[in-house]
Write a structure and sequence with these properties.
By secondary structure, the protein is α/β, with parallel strands linked by helices. It has helices at residues 20-31, 36-46, 63-70, 83-93, 143-150, 174-183, 185-188, 200-207, 227-235, 241-246, 249-260, and strands at 53-57, 74-79, 107-110, 124-133, 154-165, 211-219, 222-224, 270-272, 275-282. The strands form two sheets. The protein has a seven-stranded mixed beta sheet with strand order 3-2-1-4-5-9-6. The chain has a two-stranded antiparallel sheet with strand order 7-8.
Length: 284
């Protein structure tokens, strides 16, 4: 769920500018934890622990890496996205002077897997791509290239984990994401919202020359303390950037708030059940 900007998106003059540092904090403090059940399920199934060398692609602010490190894994995170999120990942994972942490051997790389070629890192036994596929048309197009760059750093038989949204009828957040698609219609083109397809992950793995070796589904409800937190968390994903550019931030806030109304509980909290899917593939 890292931000993806629409290149043809020309912000309106009245659109409020995004403050990336603030949005990175919203992601790390509100939204990122929504996928914790997915991370836990994958790590438990693959027995992540001491001896695991993990490469996290699109690592963002590093929560998934931190969870793996807490199990004893040696983790490396790579991301070409938001620099502010990577700064937060470094705060979480890299030891300060005199500070002994279980993640002391962690490495955070701003760039692509190619930037590891001079690091002389031992082969990875696990590669994860936890950014969910199946929310935008074309959202898996760059994954093949990314995996092609990463696979040479993985050992033979290493596991590669891809994640994706479950069926729209099992994901309550779909109704809110449709708001983003509708508002962004003038700029949307062929990359607008689309429902997840059954074989999205298998197609990505096949294009990368990987061998599927199991899959699973995990309940990942999106729960927020209040509507304001829900709006901030959802907008931190970057999935609403095109909508903000086509209208303005105030309009997007208003319509997302309205779309969240059916999911608001009597105590003011917001609860949206979702199902995410993961695929385990192997390096031949």
């Amino acid at each position: 769920m890292t931000p993806t900007l629409v290149r043809q998106n020309l912000p309106r003059a009245d659109a409020r500018p995004r403050v990336e540092g603030s949005r990175a904090r919203d992601w790390s403090e509100i939204q990122e934890r929504m996928l914790v059940p997915l991370y836990e399920a994958v790590y438990a199934r693959l027995g992540v622990g001491p001896g695991t060398r993990l490469l996290g692609l699109g690592c963002g602010s590093g929560l998934a890496l931190l969870m793996a490190a807490s199990r004893g894994a040696v983790v490396t995170g790579v991301d070409t996205g938001c620099a502010e999120r990577l700064d937060l990942a470094r705060e979480r994972l890299l030891p300060r002077s005199g500070d002994a942490r279980p993640a002391a051997a962690a490495r955070i790389v701003e760039g692509s897997p190619r930037d590891l070629r001079h690091a002389r890192v031992p082969a990875f036994g696990l590669v994860t791509v936890f950014e969910p596929v199946g929310c935008r048309a074309g959202d898996a197009e760059g994954l093949g290239e990314l995996l092609a760059e990463a696979v040479p750093f993985a050992g033979r038989g290493a596991a590669v984990v891809l994640a994706g949204w479950g069926p729209p009828e099992r994901c309550a957040t779909t109704s809110v994401l449709r708001v983003a698609a509708r508002l962004a219609e003038p700029l949307r083109g062929p990359r607008g919202w689309r429902p997840a397809h059954r074989d999205d992950l298998e197609e990505v793995a096949g294009r990368a020359g990987l061998r599927p070796d199991g899959s699973g589904r995990v309940a990942c409800p999106f729960g927020y303390a209040d509507v304001d937190s829900a709006v901030r968390g959802l907008l931190s994903t970057g999935l609403f950037d095109a909508a903000i550019g086509a209208t303005d931030r105030a309009q997007v806030d208003k319509e997302v708030t309205e779309a969240l109304h059916p999911h608001r509980r009597p105590d003011g909290t917001v609860w949206m059940p979702n199902v995410f899917r993961y695929l385990i593939a192997r390096v031949p």
